[in-house]
Specification:
Shape: globular
Structural class: alpha+beta
Number of helices: 9
Distance between the termini: 42 Å
Radius of gyration: 19 Å
Largest sheet: 12 strands, mixed
Oligomer: single chain
Length: 281
């Protein structure tokens, strides 16, 4: 009897280029997974990248680690990947990505994974390739890449942002792991800050960088400075610097209810190119 080939399998380094080609179909939506591939995740974290295979061809994939992130999965792919995740008996902190794929996964995983902390159903996915200065937007020239000796200044700002966004602090007890993740971003030149009187009052990170696209995350302005017109020039400065450096397109996704943030990104030249959904577990 011929052994049936399973529709989902763990990817190996031999699948790297094919997986990246799938991500490139929509580099803005898929930049998170593309960045993990380029960082060597296939070899470093065996089993974290799984692919859906039809007639011998890789047709979609998913990052399955602390987060589940789908890439180019059709309905059959969503069904097969969800079944594989169930067999892995692995739960995670969140599922995020293109809305139809995330909703499809959650429809299948939700009944056994139990209640969620939040489902952010519609998060506009935004993008720009236009330097804000060319649109007449003022830039805050005090925004710059953070340096490694500023980790202790960045940490409280990053933790405040995380707690505001997610609803719980990023660490309990020792901050060693969280500090290391902040240092890693700074070491790559991926954290931008404005420091005032020895305190970080604005920050933003390049969370993922791949295929010429940089996805910005962790945008934060100190609460005491909000409502003073400072967010637009600070964010515009980040976009300007990223477009002049590591990427030709800057993207991010934002909660649809965050009216102030959406207005800031609109002023900086971002436009909507898709929609994400995030399930927080």
């Amino acid at each position: 009897m011929l052994r049936q080939r399973l529709p989902v399998r763990s990817l190996s380094t031999a699948d790297r280029d094919t997986a990246l080609a799938l991500c490139a179909r929509d580099r803005v939506a898929n930049v998170f997974v593309a960045a993990r591939i380029l960082e060597g995740s296939i070899a470093a974290s065996p089993g974290s990248l799984i692919g859906h295979v039809e007639a011998g061809d890789l047709t979609g994939l998913a990052w399955v680690s602390a987060n589940v992130v789908p890439v180019e999965l059709d309905d059959a792919g969503v069904t097969a990947v969800a079944a594989r995740i169930m067999r892995m008996r692995r739960q995670c902190a969140s599922i995020f990505g293109p809305t139809d794929q995330v909703i499809g996964l959650w429809d299948r995983l939700g009944p056994s994974w139990g209640p969620v902390r939040a489902v952010r159903t519609h998060q506009p996915l935004l993008s720009t390739s236009t330097p804000p200065s060319s649109l007449g937007v003022d830039l805050d020239d005090r925004v710059r890449p953070a340096t490694l000796d500023e980790v202790d200044l960045v940490l409280p700002a990053a933790a405040h942002m995380f707690t505001e966004e997610i609803g719980y602090p990023p660490y309990h007890g020792s901050d060693r792991g969280y500090r290391a993740s902040i240092a890693a971003l700074i070491r790559q030149g991926h954290t931008y800050v404005r420091i005032q009187d020895g305190e970080v009052v604005f920050k933003a990170d390049i969370g993922s960088l791949a295929l010429g696209c940089a996805q910005v995350q962790g945008v934060w302005l100190h609460p005491r400075l909000r409502g003073q017109g400072l967010a637009v020039p600070a964010m515009a400065s980040v976009v300007e610097q990223v477009l002049a450096g590591p990427a030709d397109e800057v993207s991010l996704y934002v909660n649809d209810f965050n009216v102030a943030a959406r207005a800031t990104y609109d002023r900086c030249g971002f436009h909507e190119v898709g929609a994400f959904t995030t399930v927080l577990l």
